[in-house]
Amino acid sequence: MSNKKEHSTCYHCGDKCDVETIQHDEKSFCCNGCKTVYQIFSENDLTCYYD
């Protein structure tokens, strides 16, 4: 996990990320909450939410 300075869209909620974007699994997240939900979904084979 790293923080990247660029504007992007959150992979989980779709909101615009601030300048500090959280990166995990090559995806961008706007906050640790969205990243955590993504991790929970991934660990429990629930990524169909993103389809």
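[next item in queue]
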Amino acid sequence: MGYFGRAKLATLSLAAISLEVRQLFLLAIPIMLTQVVQRLISTTDTLMLASYDTDALAAVSLSQSPYLTVLFFGAGISSAVGVFVAQSLGADAVDEHDIALSTSMGLWVGFGVGLPFAIALQFTEPLMLAIGQDRDLSAAAGAYARIFTPILPVAICYGVLTQYAIAVGRPRIPLFVIAIAALANVFGNYTLIFGNFGFPELGLKGAAIASLVTQTLAFTVMLLVVTNYAPLKRFRVLAGVLKPDGARLLEILAIGIPISLMIVLEVAFFTGGTLLMGYFGATALAGHHIVMTIAATTFIVPASIATAAGIRVGLAKGAASPGGVWTAGVTSIGLGACIMASVAVIFVLLREPIIGLFIDESRPENAAVMQMGMTLLLFAAAYQVFDAVQATASGALRGVKDTTVPMQLAAISFWIIGCPAALILGFGLKLGSYGVWAAFVIALSAAAVLMLFRFSKVIPAAAMENPDAKSDPDQAESVEFQM
């Protein structure tokens, strides 16, 4: 870690940590709630389509898989914009032009990334047929995609505006917007899927139209807020949108693409794990699906703290505050680890009632799935802290624009360590589903160790890069940011 890293760790004051925890919560809690509402939108879609036609639900699931993969990729671009804005905002002399430039060029990049994929996804039906999917299911998935996927560039640009709002200290705005979108989505589904209020019954196509309208509404409302709400309007982020800046575009891509790849690498690893679970039978796959749903829900917490960490570290970096950079990074990792340690304990102690929320344990035919879910939840408990550490450490590293090496470390953890471990343990040692989940623990443990090592090397050095630092490097401080 070096002398500076050891000194910072030793001199973190309780006051600085308390202040930083407060600031992290002010950012992270609205981000968490936004993610929860977003998940509720997906759940609402699932429930309403399932009650209408299970084949339609299957088609939507098939169609959205490639769409969501691209959307995850776009999330990296959005995160990069948030870091640029935070560093500009943290400076003594706030560079409003630079904030506007980063946001407007982020919109360019988001639209540029989304457009070709939106066009490509118009060919969802032949794509699904090419990989061996059922012909009728592929046709239905293609029909849904042709209506819904053109919104992809707008969805990524919505993410850019969301990150801008969070970075300038208004994380409740995206929550407000997504809440409006959620209500619109329920109304749209009820109206267009089932044919209520005098509208025709459109079924699957109605669901696609409702999703299209919902995403368009979310972007429109966010755009109106950004251009009219005083705390966001002051930076005039659309003023230069018609004047592309090649240098900033390349900077955003240089920071954002590695973040995007890191997200895709992790998602693909766990998706691959789901495919492997299919080899061990329906019971294993059902238990896996239940526990992955639970784990994905709890991951909202460290993911939100990681986003907040990137903003907080970026603010401190822009403010040339060595103590602030270190305090924000260390506190975010500690906060995430402590919260998820509590979650792990809950998983262990309450695993039976937790799994029982998803399955009727009174039915004898569900006993095997119940037992499988309870066992796999122990594996999930084992990696909660590791997952929190790797997520928050990588989030803090984004705050100093260190994204390429963390992406490489993610590739090593999930694909060079985790993937072979899953194959060896699951198939070679014949541990089956337990072997695959043990590999999840191994991969996330490796990611946590590697990200912590990178954090210990980069964050202290980045904190000391500016020779005009505001604070004494031996006095940890926290840059307070009003919400």
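[queue empty]
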